[in-house]
Design brief:
- The chain is an alpha+beta fold.
- It is built from 12 helices and 10 strands.
- The chain folds into 3 domains: 116 residues, Orthogonal Bundle (Butyryl-Coa Dehydrogenase, subunit A, domain 1), CATH 1.10.540.10; 100 residues, Butyryl-CoA Dehydrogenase, subunit A, domain 2 (Beta Barrel); 148 residues, Butyryl-CoA Dehydrogenase, subunit A, domain 3.
- The strands form 2 sheets. Strands 1, 2, 3, 4, 5, 6, 7 and 8 form an 8-stranded mixed β-sheet that branches. Strands 9-10 form a two-stranded antiparallel ribbon.
- β9 and β10 form a beta hairpin.
- The longest helix is centred in the middle third of the chain and has 37 residues.
- The two termini are 26 Å apart.
């Protein structure tokens, strides 16, 4: 498989860092007020111009090819500043990869060729594993043999801002679930108000109630679970990269603050207990980053059992991110809970990221069961 070289990786990382510092950092606190404030459309348009919304696409669609490393690099850098934009990239890329894996090039090309971010974006319910829930939506054919969706799909990420949505649905008389593409702005779809979540506020989700909207099938109920697993195997590395970015950002802010803050006649970075906390944060971040790099390399080259390595790295990174962001607040003391410092947001975002592609406890159980098989 294709991978980007060290030079390309650095250029991509530099572009993502520059974008995060210029387009996200100055308005991070305001962006996090969504849905009680404006959505950051301008930052999203800049992300489109930089090609970040096409990273999961093949080179023929101006993407970076089938590898996962490039997307991980960008999401890592974005999450050091603001994880909400990385959540948008995650959701859009997940849906794009579903379309690619299903061979639905027409819909993908139509979406990728649009000239505005909202028209390019694809929505999907990325905070669950469809195989673990009872499906409220069902797919059925009308009297003209066309597929239509009816029912409800909760927590569709980007459902309120994207032009299209990729949704799971059950089929009467069949086990499992299938995948279908719908027009997210169809008159047969009623959307709830934006669901106010724990973290990733500017990566919004809505609940959808659907009444017979036309749908393009990607996979039937006999293939839906396999299609999800195929895409989730790689995308869990992106969730891990988001966690690593949060760890790096939390450590950097904690270190900068501890070098400036003085108490007891000396900088608090000189206190032995606080030094230990900072050292542990740095060690865990470096260890997670190294493991993620290795897992991405294994995935991009299709090494034997790379899926097991990816799951182990992703689950560990997400767990360590929750610890690191907690420590990041502790280092700052009372001001760590103030929104203008960013640590409070990272703490919430780390908890939210843990639920990508399914709840962490269930993902751990499935990890072992899959190994045993």
């Amino acid at each position: 498989m294709l991978t980007i070289g060290d030079k390309g990786k650095k250029l991509l990382a530099d572009a993502a860092t520059d974008f995060a510092n210029k387009a996200l950092l100055p308005d991070r606190e305001e962006n996090d007020k969504f849905p009680f404030g404006p959505f950051f459309d301008q930052a999203l348009e800049t992300a489109l111009e930089l090609g970040f919304l096409h990273l999961a696409l093949p080179e023929s669609m101006e993407g970076m090819g089938p590898g996962i490393t490039d997307l991980c690099v960008v999401c890592d850098r974005l999450c050091q500043v603001d994880a909400s934009m990385a959540g948008i990239l995650f959701t859009n890329s997940f849906a794009q990869r579903l379309l690619l894996a299903a061979g639905e090039a027409k819909t993908l090309e139509e979406a990728a060729g649009q000239d505005s971010a909202r028209k390019v974006l694809l929505a999907a319910p990325v905070f669950n594993n469809p195989g673990e829930i009872r499906h409220l939506a069902r797919a059925e054919k009308d009297n003209k043999n066309r597929w239509r969706l009816t029912g409800g799909v909760p927590y569709v990420v980007l459902g309120g801002v994207a032009a299209r949505a990729v949704l799971p649905a059950a089929v009467e008389g069949s086990k499992g679930f299938g995948w279908y593409v719908v027009n997210a702005n169809s008159p047969q779809i009623v959307k709830s108000a934006t669901v106010f979540s724990l973290g990733l506020h500017a990566c919004p989700a809505v609940d959808m109630t659907i009444d017979g909207t036309p749908a393009t099938p990607l996979a039937g109920p006999e293939d839906g679970a396999d299609l999800f697993r195929q895409v989730a195997d790689a995308m869990q590395l992106v969730a891990g990269a988001m966690a690593v970015g949060l760890m790096k950002g939390s450590f950097r802010e904690a270190l900068d603050y501890s070098k400036k803050r003085r108490q007891g006649g000396k900088r608090i970075v000189e206190w032995s207990e606080l030094t230990r906390i900072l050292a542990e944060m740095s060690i865990h971040a470096r260890m997670a980053e190294a493991a993620l790099d290795r897992a991405c390399q294994a995935a991009d080259h299709g090494e034997h059992s790379w899926e097991h390595l990816a799951a182990a790295v992703s689950l560990t990174a997400c767990s360590l991110a929750c610890e690191a962001t907690t420590d990041g607040i502790q280092v700052l003391g009372g001001v760590g809970y103030m929104k203008e410092y960013g640590q409070e947001k990272r703490f919430r975002d780390a908890k939210q990221i843990q639920a990508l592609l399914g709840l962490a406890p269930m993902r751990r159980i499935k990890y072992l069961r899959r190994m045993l098989r």
